[in-house]
Write a sequence for this structure.
């Protein structure tokens, strides 16, 4: 009997925003894997830390974070083989995923290598996008709005077209693209309906109208939400600046 | 001291997919409100049922579901006044929300009436879109894909343009628009990379390639995911039909 592979969505950062199901599986598996940068702590592990026991084996998957590219596939080849050995030995393995495993997550690289060979279950999680809307106190999208999720590394021309076509927009992976994206939103006349959230749901969370961000850069875990039709949104973000 | 208003995301349907935070608040509040149809059970209440105690006061907000329109605002005026009386009396009130409160949720109608008057906290939840991707075993979006969420009631012309512009698409609120949407996807040559999920995460969940759906209608809680570039997706949905 081989083990089961779990992709566990852990939510946006607050350990209390994991699901009962992810909590149950996390507490019971003998092997826990998670992405980790080459230096510094693993964010996924930090979210799960309150629930990890000393008897559980931890397998960090070291992914160089400095380069904002798709990481070398060799990393995932090696990690998949390590996890395969545990699965072959009959141990269930949980891979910890920030947010939701299948919403722009790196879990897909392990999934595509292992799901054909082992029983696999994905446990969906709360995405940072939902948490950002909650923090801003404004619907992400409503009624018959088209909501587009736009990755920050995209070129200005593509980004502009996608923002123009949607009623609501979430720009993710903002990071070092922040100043350029802010300038584009300003040029489109949409700054007044844009909100900015950094490290959502963590103690160091920052929530403010985009117009009030004085920095020219943003951390990797930041998001910009645009709600075009939102007069209520404008009023609320304006009030938040007082 | 007035009470606090909570908007609780309960996730897509499986009671185990609620967060630890929603569970804690749900277990502790004296007053629980939820949307309910004029006939039949409340889906939000069904999700929360295992965690509701006999000592908690329940306030159904009756919203006629038969008409797929924006419900009469008078319903929410009345419900807001009812909840305001509990909040004024110092009772915390939790409003149960299917999925995530701010992802196309009707909670916004109570939020806009009450959040200016009472302390309000939104607890984000797992959306049915994330759960549908998990059920299909395929990333919702990855790398620098643009993901667009397109409500089913939109006209063919708008829907076609939004599908053309995105790398990945989630069509929500499919319901009685199913046959028209399926025909559009076929005309666009995208059927082979489209998956269909009905009543996701519940015991009666159905997951299949769009091409294999024989019915001409779908329940309200159904979703179509399109992943254009997904060769892996195509292989997997093909395998699922064997």
């Amino acid at each position: 009997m081989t083990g089961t592979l779990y992709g566990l969505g852990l939510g946006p950062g607050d350990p209390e925003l994991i699901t009962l199901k992810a909590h149950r599986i996390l507490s019971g598996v003998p092997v826990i894997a998670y992405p980790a940068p080459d230096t510094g702590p693993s964010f996924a592990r930090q979210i799960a830390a309150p629930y990890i026991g000393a008897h559980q084996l931890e397998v960090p998957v070291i992914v160089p974070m400095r380069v904002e590219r798709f990481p070398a596939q060799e990393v995932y080849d090696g990690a998949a083989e390590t996890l395969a050995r545990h699965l072959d030995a009959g141990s269930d393995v949980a891979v910890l995923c920030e947010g939701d495993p299948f919403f722009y997550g790196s879990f897909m690289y392990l999934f595509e290598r292992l799901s054909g060979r082992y029983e696999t279950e994905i446990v969906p999680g709360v995405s940072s996008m939902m948490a950002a809307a909650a923090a801003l106190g404004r619907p992400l999208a409503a009624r018959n709005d088209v909501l587009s999720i736009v990755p920050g590394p995209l070129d200005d021309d593509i980004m502009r077209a996608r923002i123009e076509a949607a009623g609501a927009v979430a720009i993710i992976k903002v990071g070092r693209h922040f100043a350029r994206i802010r300038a584009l939103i300003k040029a489109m006349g949409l700054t007044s309906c844009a909100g900015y959230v950094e490290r959502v749901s963590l103690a160091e969370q920052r929530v403010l109208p985009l117009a009030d961000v004085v920095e020219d850069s943003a951390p990797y875990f930041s998001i910009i939400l645009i709600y075009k039709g939102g007069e209520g949104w404008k009023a609320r973000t304006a009030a938040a600046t007082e």
